[in-house]
Amino acid sequence: MNIRKTALLILVTLFGSYSVSAQMLERKRAVQDGPVEDIFLAGSIAGLSTVTALPQKNMNSMVMHNFGLVSGGIEDFYGLDGGAAVRLGIDYGVTDKLDIGIGRTGIEDVVDLRAKYVILEQLKSDKVPVQIAIKGDLGISTQKERRFDYTFTERLNYFTSVMVARKFNDKLSLQVAPMVSHFNTVVKEQNNGKLYNTIVGLGIAGRYKLNNRNALAFEYLPVLGNRNPNTKDHVAVSFEIDTGGHVFQLFFMSGRWFTEQHLLARTDTNILDLDFRFGFNINRFFGLGK
Amino acid sequence: MAQSYMTEEGSAVFYSKVPLHTFSGESENLTGIINLSNSKVDFYIDLTTLETGIEKRDRDMKETLETEKYPFAEFFGELVSDFNPDTTAEQPVTVKGEFKIHGVSQEVTIDGTLQMKPEGLVVKASWILLLEDYDIVPPSLLFVKVDQEQEIEIEALLKPVEN
Q1: What is the pLDDT of residues B49-82, one digit of tens each?
Q2: Block mean pLDDT (10 aa), chain A, length 290
Q3: Which residues pair with A104 in a beta bridge?
């Protein structure tokens, strides 16, 4: 009998506490169909831009550099003696969808102005399955040239692309981007074939997250159609580290540049010949108000 | 006269100190109910709705709080001080109950104010939450370490519930 009473007491107590918790509001997750976050870790991989734009009033300051060819061997300390090609840049999120930026590349003193606009955002609900962004970049070669007397217009080069990307799951994102570059001036250094002012290409990129902090990424920029003599398709393979406010990207890339128009028109090393260089980008993100 | 007052769009803010500056995270998704007849107070928030203004920091915060595993911060308790619903003056009140975040519950006593207005009941409260009390390990990024003390502020207008 005593045992039964105890059991009853336990039941009543349980039931009692149950009814107390029944007074609690049901815990419901907030409904958030919104844009998919974090398709790529940053606005670019090594040199290729991604569909990822900065949130409004966020700034990304970038130090992008690569060194000489690893195939230079130990005498050249695997390219690190070769001197760095550096692009310093700042991008700013005017809105959540529009970024504007400026950068300067040490090679040929190219200053470039760029803008990226997200036309369509991939949604968590998959009602929009892809993210689409357009990019434009205007490069100005400001280097003093002894042999020629360039006009301002002759110093300009242009780039535009339409980037289509999809984040397939938490780990994998892929992007394709038809692209066109145009140089107002091309200078023939050797007597071997025709140089093209306009070059068409395709940017292919991907990212695979290894964990919350680290990812592997790649970019591949095959030229379609006319190409400058002795140029090769640019490739980069990157290891990305996300620390919260920073994204570090450590990579091997065949191209020398961080502006896509130059990667398309000027990459003359072939990654298949093991002609690639070590490089890294530092992206530092700042929030400048809400 | 209504006995229960409820909101699904209260605001909750936390202030986090890191060396050299303070940042805050905000959400407008604070859901809660105050029942004046039995003094029960019940609030919760989906932590993934907190925004700090930097997307990357948001991700970091969600990771630290393990929001996939523990999506809510919640308080369930009761008013332990008197409240007179017949005046429209702001009155100091105290609630006592369980606060739960990151899967850890702690008994807490929180001071705040209640004010009866024509459109409903306005609640304001703030308190200091110690991360270690809830087994929350603040991320240490490069050289920056988030302070243990997080100031939490809530403010909401609770509308009368008819039933």
Answers
A1: 999 888 778 888 888 899 989 999 999 999 999 9
A2: 62 51 76 84 96 94 93 83 91 97 96 97 93 98 85 95 96 98 86 88 97 95 94 96 91 96 94 90 87
A3: A88, A111
pTM of the model: 0.67
Instruction: For chain B, positions 17-76, list CB contacts with chain A under 8 A.
Output: 23, 29, 31-33, 35, 40, 42, 44, 46, 48-49, 52-57, 59-60, 63, 71-72, 74, 76
- What chain B residue is nearest to A243 in terms of C-alpha separation? B141
**A45, two tokens:** 């991989």
Q: Which residues pair with A21 in a beta bridge?
A: none
Residue A38 phi, psi dihedral angles, 5° rounding: 65, 45
C-beta of residue B95 within 8 angstroms of C-beta of residue B107: no
Beta bridge partners of B66: none
pLDDT recorded at residue A23: 67
For residue B97, list its beta bridge partners. B77, B108
Encoded tokens for B127: 């308190």
- Contact yes or no for A55 and B63 at CB 8 A: no
Cα–Cα distance for residue pair A173/A90, rounded to 1 Å: 25
pLDDT digits (tens, 9 = 90+) for B7-30: 999 999 999 888 778 889 999 999
Residues of A in contact with B29 (CB under 8 A): 30
- Residues A185, A190, A194, A198, CA torsion sign: negative
Contact residues on chain B for A288, CB-CB shorter than 8 A:
none
Residues of B in contact with A121 (CB under 8 A): none
Q: Is B48 close to A37, i.e. CB distance below 8 A?
A: no
**CA distances, B66 to each of A33, A177, A181, A224 (Å):** 20, 35, 45, 46
Phi, psi angle pair for A266, to nearest 5°: -125, -5
In degrees rounded to 5, what are phi and psi of residue A125? Answer: -75, -5
Q: Does B59 sit within 8 Å of A38, measured CB to CB?
A: yes
CB-based contact A285 B72, cutoff 8 Å: no
Cβ within 8 Å, pair B54-A58: yes
Q: Determine, for residues B56 and A245 on separate chains, whether the beta-carbon distance falls below 8 Å.
A: yes
Partner-chain residue, chosen from B56, B57, B71, that has the shortest CB–CB distance to A29: B71
Strand, helix or coil for residue B5:
strand
Q: What distance in Å separates the CA atoms of residue A22 and residue B77, rounded to the nearest whole number?
A: 13
Cα separation, B25 vs B30, whole angstroms? 13
- Is the ipTM of this structure higher than 0.85? no
Inter-chain contact A55–B55, Cβ cutoff 8 Å? yes
**Which sign does the torsion angle of CA B88, B90, B94, B100 carry?**
positive
